[in-house]
Amino acid sequence: MATLWTRGIQVCRALPRLCTAPSVQRRTSVRLMSTEKDNLLVDVDSKTGVATMQMNRPPVNSLNLEFLTSISIALEKLENEKCRGLILTSDVPKIFCAGLDILEMYQPDVERLQVFWRSLQDVWLRLYGSKMATIAAINGHSPAGGCLLATCCDYRIMAPNYTIGLNETQLGIVAPFWFRDTMCGVIGHRETEHALTLGIMYSTEEALNIKLVDKVVPQDKVIPAAQEKMKQYLKIPEVARQLSKDLMRRETVEKLRLRREDDVAAFKNFAVRESVQKSLGMYLEMLKKKSQQKK
Ligand SMILES: CCCCC/C=C/C(=O)SCCNC(=O)CCNC(=O)[C@H](O)C(C)(C)COP(=O)(O)OP(=O)(O)OC[C@H]1O[C@@H](n2cnc3c(N)ncnc32)[C@H](O)[C@@H]1OP(=O)(O)O
Q1: pTM of the model
Q2: For residue 95, what is the enclosing H or E element?
Q3: Is the CB of 266 under 6 A from ligand 1?
Q4: pLDDT one-digit tens code per residue, 224-242
Q5: CB atoms within 10 A of CB 275
Q6: 3-class DSSP state of 281
Q7: Rounded distance, CA 256 to CA 33, Å?
Q8: 87, 152, 234, 240: which sits with the fewest CB atoms below 10 Å from its CB?
Q9: 102 lines ligand 1 (CB under 6 A)
Q10: ipTM entry
Q11: How far apart are CA 18 and CA 234, in angstroms?
Q12: Catalytic residue flag (residue 100)
């Protein structure tokens, strides 16, 4: 078992054959970078070539700039090392991912805001466009950006009694076209329009009904079920599987690739609006009150 450390990322792998960098093959433990608290744990099973990526940024795995950067670097590494599959899950109890860190968008530093958005684009381009077979093991709530991560994957398995959806309008903000396109690819145009305009958070059972998730299993079976489903993907000849996925997703990926900077500008101009800032402030206040009441 080899362990790699990078900015907030631990990558463990069981077989050196997956490691293409010579320094990795030679050593069992390499610290590439160590700056922040480790918030992403990535294990690679060398027999199968399947990586399990666990998000671990308590309390709710919200996606700030540093966390997105960690995810993006890890995805690039796995792709470069020719991993065949990825299971995306959470190490934080009851939360898959709370979506974008609202503090990145509220009263923002405009320079950082744009870097933040580019890093989200990077994660989306890497995950949605991944050559790996990808399965979301949704073991907790998954609003907004959390739902985006899940819908980027090829297959979704969810535990009962949680919620998932693109709830942006409830915050007074609007999901960009690539969130919409990703959701459309999973549940279709009509249901996406319904979901986006109302900012619906679906229960696990509702999500299964509209096929936003593919399978529901008890909490402790989510990862085993993902591993089992992964075997089906890995049985398909690699190039055929990858090209079929590419055939389905290339246009959507290219649409963002061609308009990345326009999209950054649109996001920035929207986010700094007074009315948007007011809505985000009220939403944060509501979250804080709710959190205080629990304590
Ligand atoms: C302008 C265009 C942008 C378009 C794209 C936007 C995409 C997004 O992802 S926007 C983010 C949307 N996310 C949400 O609406 C989720 C909000 N959070 C929740 O609904 C809940 O926190 C929960 C269901 C995820 C978890 O509930 P629970 O376990 O009860 O935890 P708490 O609500 O008590 O939260 C603990 C702690 O975390 C703070 N927090 C929660 N979510 C976020 C977040 N997304 N960003 C930043 N901070 C978040 C919450 O305020 C609590 O903080 P404290 O008050 O300091 O304890």
Answers
A1: 0.92
A2: strand 94-95
A3: no
A4: 999 999 999 999 999 999 9
A5: 9
A6: helix
A7: 30
A8: 240
A9: yes
A10: 0.99
A11: 16
A12: yes
